[in-house]
Description:
Radius of gyration: 23 Å
Distance between the termini: 39 Å
Oligomer: single chain
Shape: elongated
Helix content: 40-55%
Strand order of the largest sheet: 1-3-2
Strand content: 5-15%
Number of strands: 3
Amino acid sequence: MFTEIKPGHADAMREDLAMLADATNDERVHEALHQIGTLHDARHVIFDHDTRHMFASVFDGSWDTYIDDFAQTEVGDRFDKVFSHTEGFPGVADPGVKDWFVSHQAPAGVFVSSYPDLTVQQVWKDQRVSEAFQAVLDTPEFRAALDNPANAELLATPAFQKLLEEASA
């Protein structure tokens, strides 16, 4: 989406964007992003000599749910702060906010994703499984199981060999 920055507000917007970036390490914001659970990424850009702002995000699910979820979290408050520097922004809690967002949207000409079939929830699960598996690989008990002749048949399977190969990559 593209918006017009209120005259003289670009520096204040930059400050609020810097605080938003710093807030990604804030536990409350982290919890809010987990609560929302659909945001892959988001970016803000100030351009055209500090007169315009671009916001772009990638998320799972419906746009309506995405906006509703943001409005109910810590992130919604931060959105209010950033977008308050744009012309006509009614506020995240305003019933007309969705119409305002839609009126400022422009379709992407091209969108490319390295993992188009994975949701945020699946990515997080894959990360947790990977971390748990790595923890198992690092135990002496796992090393002992690899050396146990009783496990030779399992260890020789292509699936297990691929698993070990991927884990060491």
